[in-house]
Amino acid sequence: MIDLRSDTVTQPTDEMRHAMALADVGDDVYGEDPTINYLEELSADRMGKEAGLFIPSGTMGNLIAFLTHCQRGEEAIMGDQAHTFYYEVGGVSALGGIMVHTVPNQADGTIRISDLKNAIRMEDVHFPTTRLIALENTHNRCGGVVLEPEFIQQVVKISQDNDLFVHMDGARIFNAAIKLGLPVQNLVDGVDSITFCLSKGLGAPVGSVLCGTQDFIHRARRIRKQLGGGMRQAGILAAAGIVALETMVDRLEEDHQRAFLLADKLRDIPHLHVRENSPQTNMVFIDLDDCDTRTNIQVIEELKIMGVLIGTSKNRGFRLVTHYGISDDDIVKVSEIFMKIMSN
Ligand SMILES: Cc1ncc(COP(=O)(O)O)c(C=O)c1O
Fold first, then answer.
1. Residue 2: its pLDDT value, please?
2. Protein residue closest via CA to atom 8 of ligand 1
3. What's the gap in Å between 34 CA and the centre of ligand 1?
4. How confident is the model at residue 327 (pLDDT cuts 50, 70, 90)?
5. Closest alpha carbon to 244 in 304, 145, 312, 324
6. Mutate which of 92, 145, 197 for ligand 1 pocket (most atoms within 8 A of beta carbon)
7. How confident is the model at residue 264 (pLDDT cuts 50, 70, 90)?
């Protein structure tokens, strides 16, 4: 099977498995797992923040960040295409009592500054208190697109002017940094908290890291425990995360190049349209045209029979994600199989 559904399907590398087998471990709830402690320090250092916290998943990382920044009844502003709004089971509302206030995401993953300013509540006895603005980089539903530092700085400035916090869902922040050719710190400068994932393009089997100030992480650690996310000898998992950070970041460029190669090949196939501005990083979004009467689900089933797995996107669309389990040969094979299916 050639699996382009997501970069979450990546298998741990041999180096990761080796590091996992040999990891020094201890009880992390007591702060005694040296491998986790090292991963947290390394992550904070990479992000230019004071401290880090190892978390089982990106979803839990975002949830803990929201619960740490906001009290019940307070409001968080985010784009209407945000992963946290769409795909995190409403956790911030269900578990944190936090109101989600969405504003339109633009096609490039940004939010209009005027929309953001208008969404911030003024002091009024009737209104919830606005506490947080959340951004996402790269932006998944907008097409794996990259937020530029200039936009992020504008949002940071608004948050500072209004006494708000900014959280970055940086599940794929390293893809953004590689795409822009910038140190990752430049993308989280002034941002109060960031979650990034080890288990996507970086290939680790499990885990994300939440970074912020010492005080923020101290409070976040308590909330992780409250949610049942305190882990014990999880250095076995953190060991793979360390290998991910040390060996898998620079090679993300290869995934981006393969996404471009794939898009170029798919452009030549009847009834398929690669979306404008796609790809930017490791995600290719395409649509079926109206001349083809099949649904996207039917096409996905036909591809599956031929050994290719891909994901759906809105309307009659598809999402194809490159990662280190995908070779140049796989890209050629996928385009040939698509050609066969679409010519039927
Ligand atoms: C942008 C973004 N944020 C958060 C997550 C959640 O990560 P996890 O699957 O580790 O919970 C994902 C997962 O795909 C994502 O794409």
1. 98
2. 58
3. 26
4. very high
5. 324
6. 197
7. very high
Can you tell me which residue has the tokens 């975002």? 62
Angle, CA 10 vertex, CA 177 and CA 84 arms, to 5°: 60
Which pairing describes strands 165-170 and 130-136: parallel, antiparallel, or unpaired? parallel
> With contact defined as beta carbons under 8 Å apart, do 256 and 174 qualify?
no
Q: What is the mean pLDDT of the chain?
A: 97
Cβ(202) to ligand 1 under 6 A? no
What structural domains and CATH numbers belong to the chain? 10-247 (3.40.640.10), 251-343 (3.90.1150.10)
Of the pLDDT bands very low, low, confident and very high (cuts 50, 70, 90), residue 344 is confident
- Of all protein residues, the one whose alpha carbon is nearest to atom 9 of ligand 1 is 58
Please report which helix (H) or strand (E) contains residue 56, including its range: none
- Give, using CA atoms, the residue closest to atom 16 of ligand 1: 140
pLDDT in tens, 179-194: 999 999 999 999 999 9
Q: Which two tokens stand for residue 330?
A: 């796989």
Q: Which of 8, 54, 57, 59 to mutate to test ligand 1, by most ligand atoms within 8 A of the CB atom?
A: 59
Q: How many helices (H) and strands (E) does the chain have?
A: 13, 13
97: left (phi over 0), alpha (psi -120 to 50) or beta: left
The response to whether residue 7 sits with its C-beta less than 6 Å from ligand 1 reads no
Q: Give me the mean pLDDT over the 268-280 stretch.
A: 94
58 lines ligand 1 (CB under 6 A): yes
Strands (E), 25-129: 51-55, 75-79, 99-103
**Mean pLDDT confidence for 108-120:** 98
